[in-house]
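Subject: mismatched residue count in predicted assembly?

I count 846 residues in my input, but I want to confirm that the predicted structure covers every chain. Input:
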Amino acid sequence: MGRTLPSATQVFMQEEAAFARFRRALRRTDQLALDDLFVSARQHLAAAQYASHALPFEVFLLAMLLEEHKEVLRLKERVEDILSRQK
Amino acid sequence: MTETISGWLFDIYPNETNLTLWLIGEDGKRHRFVQDFAATIYAAGSSARLRALWRWLKAQAVPVHLSRLERKDVFQGMVAVLAAEVLQPVKLDEIFRSMVAAFPDLTYYDADISLPLRYAAAFGVFPLARCRLEVRDETVVSMTALDTPWDLEPVPAPLRILSLEPDCDPAHGEPKAIIVSYERVRYSLPLEKRVPLLINLGADLRRYDPDLILTSWGDTWLMPLLMELCKESGSMLPLNRDESQSVVERKEHTYFSYGQIVYRGRQVQLRGRWHLDRHNAMLWSDYGMEGVLEMARVTCQPVQDAARLSPGTGISSMQFVTALQKGILIPWHKHQAETPKTAMDLLRADMGGMVYQPTVGLHRDVGGIDFVSMYPGIMVRFNISPEVPRAGTDLEPAPGEPGIVPITLAPLLNKRLALKSALLTLHRWDCRRPGYQALASAHKWLLVTCFGYLGYKNARFGRIEAHEAVTAYGREALLRAKEAAEDLDYEILHMYVDGLWVHKEGCKTPADFEALLADITERTGLPISLDGVYRWVVFLPSRLDERVPVPNRYFGVFQDGSIKVRGIEARRRDTAPFIAETQMAIMEILAKAEDAEHLKEVYPQALAFAHREMQALRAGSVPVEKLLVSQKLSRELGEYSSPSPVARAVRQLEEAGKAVRPGQRVRFLYTRGRPGVRAWDAPEQPDPRCVDVKRYQTLLKRAVETVLAPIGQSVDGGKDDECRYLFPVKIAEPLGEGGTQRLDFLSISKVNNFVNGGG
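Triage response: the counts match. Full output below for your records.
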């Protein structure tokens, strides 16, 4: 309403749609993993909007990476926990 | 001989030569006076053209007083103007129209400001202001205001109210009688006996002489009918108290506002008396009579207009009065364009408030924190106004004199803050509470729209840069609040423009959040308050993808047991009452649990209740009225490419000869077979057997799942070491650290079983 520029949510949906052909050519299992990546980027739309970066997809990639890293940290903690219990 | 009279200012309007003024005297009498009043229009342009205008005005039949002055234009600084004081206010519009036709190239100011607003600015009065008049021969010679619109408890005017309503909704059925009531009198007048009806009603109007005729469907049906009956029988009904004036009628219209189409019905306004129609008053259901009077007091619009105007017009009126009082010119047409911006500027500036994705799931002991009237607060505190230059987003007030927007808003905002703090301390059953709440909600609408009007290009004191500045300060303040909360080890669950939801282990009472509130106020300079501490609150995911959270869709229960829901079915105006009521009843059962741990005790009750309601629906024991869906027609019927249910219902109405305009609400039932809907206001009553029970079952199932699925998931989840919350989720993995659960709707076997098995 009354905006000159699309919001982060609109840009995000355009970017996701732009990868429709890429997604279609992936194996089903890979498709589902790709969807997860987009879902994780979506968690940070507010921050992407605030960043007002000229190339929004870079911000979305970083957001995906951020969620991946959080997952790595969480798993690392669990592995250490399990290892320490085995000792 | 001069006499002094005190009382409440009731109404002002122009007559043939000057103004008519009505006063409710402290002696209980209704007085009519006249007063001389001049209205000024300003014109700016080249000296030669202004000289020509001077000569032209001198030659007109209407008496005018002319002078050359310098006045302040908000966008251009001081400008030389020709001031034309029109001494016969009723001629103002007429003379201005011919002026524009003769001199279209000049810039005009203060041209289309209504007389009541000019009068309010000149004397510092407003509708129902207590004032003292000095009167000589029925003519007011001086006027002194004795109170201001900002008093919390003004002395109420002793209004006489007579209510008129038909015995049924005229859109739905054929009314047989009109019910008249005032004080302890209540009787009904059959519509078919027309002459006795007019005689009886006329006698009562004369005897009781009401100040206000309060009607249902008076604008659209009742008043036009009464006037028609008078014309037919040649009799006179004293609807107006001022017999020299005729009743004022305005046509219906439809307009577009805030992304929604709005319909305003036709209006019938009285002179010397007020007519208010409960069904054609803006937001009557929100704030009622007290709110309407408050709206009139603070905006200075006459009561009959204030009841029917949008809050946007209200806030403009307040700005106009400020401008008139400060000698600031009000442009007739605004010529201010947006200043050029680079793409990067646009990218940074063209943003709204910050809206975060909430952490989906059930959370307990959550503090809901709100900035109090954030945007108006920002405008007042940081002096944001179209004419005030701004420096950066540093949360520093702009230097210089306060601008027109903050000057106008400050007293309104202070009154709202005073009301809010009074409400916090008043006892739950204090008789002042409902009144205060009505006032607070009237103010709320004015304050909400003042922000929109700052960015509206047609608003006389609007400027997009000022609008963008407000959101920029808002984002900065919210981020500072987030940083303050995180520095104090709170977990941020959700943030939404001017509010945040936070959790910290051990913080359960309002006192626990005080340090955080103080820190946020310190960092932002804006007032912040604790909306309440939730026993538990559920943030919901999107319907389309349960992994995706949606902002501002949640429900929860505060510590005092009160319920807050946003964005779910019960809040939507197009939900059938049966479904909304069932959802709220479920919430009330859940609210009986004294904390999240006890939810598992009430959950089976809630489930059983939902099951019973589903049975009732299937057995056809739900009254048809409770299944009515009410939706707005969003465009002309011909513009629908594939007709929506509401469009199909409208087609039925049109076939029955009832016209529906875009923006009007239409009530209908879902029925079996084609066309799938049945308009409620169509002539034949629908057969209860044709109700599309399956469809309502689906709708009910969805509404029940919205609230019970997340609760059920928590209850069934059992203990989980990883989660410091009581009810973790079986299949799902946490999204954030600790207390966050992801919902998985597939795992909620109980709810699904109940709906599929039972339905």
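Chain B touches chain A at residues 258-259, 343-344, 346-348, 350-352, 354-357, 455, 475, 479, 495, 545, 547-549, 735 (CB under 8 Å). Marking this ticket as 'not a bug'.
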